[in-house]
Specification:
One of its GO terms (molecular function) is D-cysteine desulfhydrase activity. The protein is an alpha/beta fold and 475 residues long. It contains 17 helices and 13 strands. It has a domain of 212 residues: Rossmann fold.
């Protein structure tokens, strides 16, 4: 495996891209026709249509100097300065893409249905995975706002998705005077990442994202700390363009995600009605903010209520927390439901939440650890997660991301055993799975897997030969 270091110069605006940045960028722009799966000899060969957009930006030189800035603590504004969006009304303009396929695979001698949202593509922005679902309404807005504002981590999939949506809008208007902006708040970057952007950060900056760095204290004050806060814009955060800026909370956990969840529910119900043969189904969803899971749960319940008792399907939704613990997942989902006005009271909210998968089956719990410790620690390289990532890749040819997909399966596999062991196992299958078929919603996120594997390499868990970094054509 070769590592290619190239010093490249973008003639337009004299932008010099340092050799180390190009090395990291080369990990992003993989020149394959479709997703290809390699076994352990090479952990990674991934390409998405979003890479084609990256290539176009690089080839055309239609990007300016990366924009980094810091927050001005002297500016203040109120919620009235932000543009309010009626997402229910915008939902009327949504144009659905064709349904994502469903693959049946075998994992530890058990059949699993994989809902391949990683293969879903939104026209124009080329978003995939659950961000294609979440950002569907935003992509289809009739009167797109002048500025999108959000916040989160510097390698966030939602960050890259929003950057792609805004970039697509600018392509449509051909970079006219009314250029759309995407402003993103994050904590102060580590020095190496600021000088050597990589992964989703590099891509989002390349697509024109304006990055605003704030101190840890300011970040916690504004956004409620590592696990997020209110879905409303912070009271002391002024919009970049008053009256023309909209706020999208971390991970897209707001009304913008409702329409995509409804379409996902319709696809799952339609597929299971045609292929389920009346069997009970558990739909497992990895959760960050858990917005996809809770909106999907309520959308499926709504569809089930429209069915007659005779034709009603037994379909339940199960969320697997990948950020924080079950308490955090419950708070996030309740907050989203309250915001989208899908229930009346707090007591009603709690009744509308999907089941949350505990970190271990009941007969394996009580190991002297808190739930947070028992769940996988988000973003931290973990040997057990890497083992599961390899197992799913090798056994059934499905590529997972390491932050959500492989982490979710690490917890999931603790709860069930090979079908041959169901009757005799000392740790029998959880009631969430026993006697039920399993469908896993593949949330995508494969665009960021290169930087994820590099972090595993830095921790000594993956050799550099396993991180396939391919060179991209010269600029």
């Amino acid at each position: 495996m070769l590592l290619c270091f190239k010093s490249q110069v973008c003639i337009r605006k004299g932008l010099t891209i340092a050799p180390y940045i190009m090395m990291m960028a080369s990990a992003l722009f993989i020149r394959n026709h479709r997703h290809r799966i390699h076994v352990r000899r090479s952990l990674l060969t991934i390409h998405s249509n979003l890479d084609d957009i990256m290539n176009e930006v690089l080839n055309l030189g239609n990007f300016s100097q990366f924009q980094f800035s810091t927050i001005d603590n002297n500016k203040r504004s109120g919620p009235e300065d932000w543009l309010a969006v009626d997402w229910n009304r915008e939902e009327q303009h949504v144009v659905a893409s064709p349904p994502s396929p469903v693959d049946q695979v075998w994992i530890r001698d058990r059949p699993v249905y994989i809902k391949r949202d990683d293969q879903l593509r939104l026209p124009g922005s080329q978003l995939s995975g659950n961000k294609a679902r979440k950002m569907l309404t935003l992509t289809c807005m009739q009167d797109f706002p002048d500025c999108i504002v959000s916040y989160g981590g510097p390698q966030s999939n939602a960050m890259l998705a929003l950057a792609a949506v805004v970039h697509f809008q600018n392509q449509k208007i051909n970079y006219a005077d009314n250029k759309k902006r995407f402003v993103y708040y994050t904590k102060k970057l580590p020095r190496f990442l600021r000088s050597q952007p990589n992964g989703n950060l590099f891509r989002a900056l390349l697509l024109g994202m304006e990055l605003v760095e704030v101190s840890v204290q300011d970040y916690n004050d504004l956004f409620g700390g590592d696990f997020g806060g209110s879905p409303e814009p912070p009271k002391n955060l002024p919009p970049p363009i008053p009256g023309k800026s909209i706020w999208i909370p971390q991970g897209g956990a707001c009304g913008v995600a409702v329409a995509g969840a409804k379409l996902l529910a319709e696809e799952i119900i339609s597929y299971w009605r045609d292929n389920g043969r009346g069997r009970p189904l558990t739909v497992a969803v990895p959760g960050g903010t858990c917005s996809t899971a809770v909106l999907l749960y309520n959308a499926i319940r709504s569809l089930q209520n429209e069915q007659t008792d005779e034709g009603k399907l037994d379909v339940k939704v199960l969320v697997i927390p990948c950020v924080g613990d079950d308490g955090y997942a419950r708070r996030q989902m309740a907050s989203l439901l309250s915001q989208t006005r899908q229930t009346g009271t707090n007591d009603g909210v709690l009744c509308e939440l999907p089941e949350i998968l505990p970190p271990y089956p009941e007969n394996m719990s009580g190991l002297g650890r808190s739930n947070t410790e028992q769940y996988v620690t988000f973003g931290t390289p973990d040997a057990s997660v890497l083992d599961v990532y390899r197992e799913i890749n090798d056994e059934c040819g499905v590529q997972l991301d390491l932050l959500y997909g492989a982490s979710a399966w690490t917890v999931l596999l603790r709860h069930w055993r090979s079908e041959l062991l169901w009757e005799s196992s000392e740790h029998p299958t959880s009631a969430n799975f026993q006697g039920r078929q399993l469908m896993y919603v593949h949330s995508g996120g494969l665009e960021g897997i290169n930087s994820q594997l590099l972090r595993y390499h830095y921790k000594g868990l993956v050799s550099i030969e396993d991180v396939q970094i391919l060179s991209q054509r010269r600029i």
